[in-house]
Specification:
heterodimer, A: six-stranded mixed β-sheet, four-stranded antiparallel β-sheet, about 0% helix, about 55% strand, B: mainly beta, seven-stranded mixed β-sheet
């Protein structure tokens, strides 16, 4: 079985500050890991993914995440927050096969203060 | 850029009625999925579909649910007899062999 825990259901940062959203996973097999973003009244948009290879992955909008197997973590970071980053962020895990279900964390709502 | 589309955007129904939620996946994708998100809760997997059959389903996906790919483009989720607790946002997703799932904008189902 797989599971995802996102620490902090709400995170608030000032514009220009570092964004750090935490994700820890549990998986019995080598995982594929994903971060999705959901803007109000919209669907889920893929920010970035880790499948194999380089453990530091870069995504859209300046976000990146690092896969740390020893810590079972896949934290999402962005050096400088922008007002437009305000949204809900979901970490997800799947097995390393095509077509496998995604297991999502509970989500973290990011608020950006001017 | 190709995208997953879903209709309707909002569906209101009476308890006990049947509803069909429709999705048009990205045209060259092979794997199709339904997820749901009850208000304030996490996104939950319902079912995956490949090669015209269900490949995986969750405990939520009981006998009142069914999926179908009636033609080469549509992918539908049917709920036979809706309950109040079926009220949720339902997301369709599709993927090619690269494992990355693309999500539609969702259908908000309200059961009264």
């Amino acid at each position: 079985a797989q599971s995802v825990t996102q620490l902090g259901s709400h995170v608030s940062v000032s514009e220009g500050a570092l964004v750090l959203l935490r994700c820890n996973y549990s998986s019995s097999v080598p995982p594929y890991l994903f971060w999705y973003v959901q803007y109000p009244n919209q669907g889920l948009q893929l920010l970035l993914k880790y499948t194999t290879g380089a453990t530091l992955v870069k995504g859209i909008n300046g976000f990146e995440a690092e896969f740390k197997k020893s810590e079972t973590s896949f934290h999402l970071t962005k050096p400088s927050a922008h007002m437009s980053d305000a949204a809900e962020y979901f970490c997800a895990v799947s097995k390393n096969n095509a077509g496998n279900m995604l297991t999502f964390g509970g989500g973290t709502r990011l608020m950006v203060k001017p | 850029e190709p995208e997953v589309t879903q209709t309707p955007s909002h569906q209101v129904t009476q308890m006990g009625q049947e509803v069909i939620l429709r999705c048009v996946p990205i045209s060259n994708h092979l794997y199709f999925y339904w997820y749901r998100q009850i208000l304030g809760q996490k996104v939950e997997f319902l079912v995956s579909f490949y090669n015209n059959e269900i490949s995986e389903k969750s405990e939520i996906f009981d006998d009142q649910f069914s999926v179908e790919r009636p033609d080469g483009s549509n992918f539908t989720l049917k709920i036979r007899s809706t309950k109040l607790e079926d009220s949720a946002m339902y997301f369709c997703a599709s993927s090619a062999a690269r494992y990355e799932q693309f999500f539609g904008p969702g259908t908000r189902l309200t059961v009264l």
